[in-house]
Amino acid sequence: xxxxxxxxxxxxxxxxxxxxxxxxxxxxxxxxxxxxxxxxxxxxxxxxxxxxxxxxxxxxxxxxxxxxxxxxxxxxxxxxxxxxxxxxxxxxxxxxxxxxxxxxxxxxxxxxxxxxxxxxxxxxxxxxxxxxxxxxxxxxxxxxxxxxxxxxxxxxxxxxxxxxxxxxxxxxxx
Length: 174
Hints:
mainly alpha
């Protein structure tokens, strides 16, 4: 895996490999991964993942996850499930290790989505936002207070945004 700064260069090399070795799933797989993770082009990523899924040597779990993602192309959850399948079947320890921070990031996004939905319902019903996660649990809007995927504690900041004590800045921060 490469960072966003070298993605275009990597994609040029991967395209050459894809052309030279069309039966090798890793070239469209890595092109899809780069589009998904670094270029944020899910449509193009799904196109490459779909191509990889049609090849004989592609792991079965990837093929199933690509199918689910194609059924729901605008659903971030199906895209994350696809990424988790790739993570689970990473071809080598280095690739799996490189993907781990993105898995944690995706898990945090799940937590944020669930808490924000519950917080909105709480605010609509009570006229004021919750002070802490315990209020959402007491109101039966969450089964339990979610764990922080980053390993810290979760809390609401002064603007009502969910935060981690160990991750001070997020993608939505300017």
